[in-house]
């Protein structure tokens, strides 16, 4: 989800731009491959398709750990104790996605040491440990990272990880993933989501250029004020540690566009890439015709996880339709977000940390409870 602290005007501008780019991408992107099934482990576009995850993952995002630390307010937004974890389990979720902050994890760029470096890493490690003890899978994802960004959709001009940036940075993100991978590589139930919502198409209206930037970073990226790390570099960083965990890789246009994912997917020597997709009612790919033409072909060849689903109208009609489509294909998904914010600004699943659902959250709760 894009930074909830942004103004309504900037959110609307970002959404309009995203929809325009989505339409342009649909016209100019490389044609989708055939939707015929490919057996796990066989070659797809020069890459080995990953084996399926051992279970269907459905659950929630737990926001706060991406912004509280850098705002000098702690590590978690709300409780992170055993009771709060049990409340998530009571919805029959089996996975929690935890957003991370690059500066806080690495202890750089002036973040208060009380909430960064070893203290932040220990807090996250302890939370992950307790989630795992409760029998939950965990997805760790990089949400806020470094790099000066002053383009459309920007909510801060700071180099530090004080807001959401369009792409990971070469200065620190590879080191971040090496450290995270080393910390959690012994537990295969921890999944690594490389970058929350890539948006390399801020100034590039040719989707082929955007996808090349997405994969390769560096000189392939035009218009950035900081050196960009592509998804291949981050996959390499994780694998350099010996970690064999599954790796989620989101598409472009805020992870909503997967039109070039099969063509430009990074190589993984472990063959354990997972396509990551985000779907909200305000995204450009928000209809079944788009899901059938753009998302289904990727899901036919790789494991696909919908890292974020949601809608900003405090209802659940959109996610109900989406979950019907996903369930019919046995695909996993996670609602944004298990926080007690206003449902329009979040959107938020709960009104309290005992797990009382919002009207929007009731849709996901109903679905998880149905098995």
Work out the count of structural domains: 1
Spatially, the strands of the biggest sheet line up as 3-4-5-6-7-8-9-10
Uncertain ranges? 5-46
Largest sheet: 8 strands, parallel, barrel
| Name of the CATH homologous superfamily | Glycosidases
How would you spell out the order of helices and strands?
HEEEHEHHEHEHHEHHEHEHEH
Percentage of residues in strands? 5-15%
Class from secondary-structure proportions: alpha/beta
Number of strands: 10
CATH topology: TIM Barrel
Radius of gyration: 19 Å
CATH class: Alpha Beta
The chain-level mean pLDDT equals 89
**Under the CATH scheme, which architecture would be assigned?**
Alpha-Beta Barrel
- What's the tally of helices? 12
**What is the 3D form?**
globular
Helix content: 25-40%
Spatial separation of the terminal alpha carbons? 26 Å
Give a written overview of the molecule.
The chain has a single domain (8-28, 40-369), classed as Glycosidases (TIM Barrel). The model is unreliable at 5-46 (pLDDT under 50). Strand 1 (43-44) and strand 2 (47-48) form a beta hairpin. Helix 11 (317-328) runs parallel beside helix 12 (359-369). The longest helix is centred in the first third of the chain and has 21 residues, at 8-28. The radius of gyration is 19 Å and the shape is globular. The strands form 2 sheets. It has an 8-stranded parallel β-barrel, surrounded by 4 helices. Helices cover 34% and strands 13% of the residues. The chain has 371 residues and is an alpha/beta fold. The protein contains 12 helices and 10 strands.
